Amino acid sequence: xxxxLEIHDLKTxxxxxxxxxxxxxxxxxxIEEGETLGLVGESGCGKTMTGMSIMRLLPPGGYIAGxxxxxxxxxxxxxxxxxxRKVRGNDVAVIFQDPMTSLNPTMxxxxxxxxxxxxxxxxxxxxxxxxxxxxxxxxxxxxxxxxLKDYPHQLSGGLRQRxxxxxxxxxxxxxxxxxxxxxxxxxxxxxxxxxxxYSLKQRLKMAVLLITHDxxxxxxxxxxxxxxxxxxxxxxxxxxxxFESMHHPYTExxxxxxxxxxxxxxxxxxxxxxxxxxxxxxxxxxxxxPRCRYATARCREEEPELTGETPExxxxxxNPVGRAGARPxxxxxx
Length: 334
Ligand SMILES: Nc1ncnc2c1ncn2[C@@H]1O[C@H](COP(=O)(O)OP(=O)(O)OP(=O)(O)O)[C@@H](O)[C@H]1O
Ligand SMILES: [Mg+2]
Known about the structure:
The protein is an alpha/beta fold. The protein has a domain at about 90-170. Helices cover about 30% and strands about 20% of the residues. It contains 11 helices and 12 strands. The chain has helices at about 45-55, 80-85, 100, 110-120, 125-140, 145, 155-170, 185-205, 215-220, 240-245, 250-255, and strands at about 5-15, 20-30, 35-40, 60-70, 75, 90-95, 175-180, 205-210, 225-230, 230-240, 305-310, 315. The strands form 2 sheets. It has an 8-stranded mixed β-sheet, with helices on both faces. A hairpin with a 2-residue loop joins strand 11 and strand 12 (about 315). The chain binds adenosine-5'-triphosphate and magnesium ion (MG). Magnesium ion (MG) binds next to helix 1.
């Protein structure tokens, strides 16, 4: 059986005045029906561009330069905009970090959700409002019927994010893309929203692409994880396996930067030294090499491919962590 979403060798570039940024540079990934895939990596590594390529909502100058995106058996790359509009919201929906930028401040939340419902379903306004109340109750909004008349500014950040999720769910998408859905919220509300997403996924049997820079968000919530670095997937594994025996030094470093509950409040979090490469001139050798404590001469000459002993656990590294031969190397002056 084929997966719900299959992305193969996706290249999404952004044309700029001088040259172009290779925001997504040959990404392959899949998501099974009802599965949550975590997509993790530092800022600027191409996570949002990967998600937005599925929706084909790219910034000015952005275009898909190659590859394929098959959702539920349909090829999305090259699909006419008119057909794609039916896919957006119906088959796949997205929630962003900051709900205020996506909600219309001058319209009640009931009207906004109802509008979304009516774009995709031939129903009367009354029915659409009923559906709005229904999805609001699904996302745990207290007194959903009364809340239909509220404007976004009357709600707290956490409730606004619930409205965004309700909008996304209003047409029963098969795939929900959640792009840093909780980054703008404080910690307790973050946990509530993550728990909500998890329970919705279980109840609605929906697949989720959970995009985050925080490995802590992934733990216990994603079935599998793809780690992204500088426009490429560098490691892919089931979540438990990744946390227990990661092979890519970048994954190791990301995991070391999760705050721990038993950590003293005044200890500084580990952050990965150095910066990712410039994606308008990506190197032809390992992209993580200048920041890698295991790097050897080969890493400065060739780019490692994404492979592994089993198809479930792939990594792109010549000196994988936990394998014979991978030893921290003396720092090399850059
Ligand atoms: N509107 C834009 N114009 C030009 N370049 C862009 C634009 N948006 C993103 N990029 C570039 O594309 C690359 C990938 O960006 P993307 O937004 O996908 O990263 P991200 O992993 O989602 O990061 P973050 O964690 O900060 O959201 C980055 O190098 C970024 O500079
Ligand atoms: Mg992003």
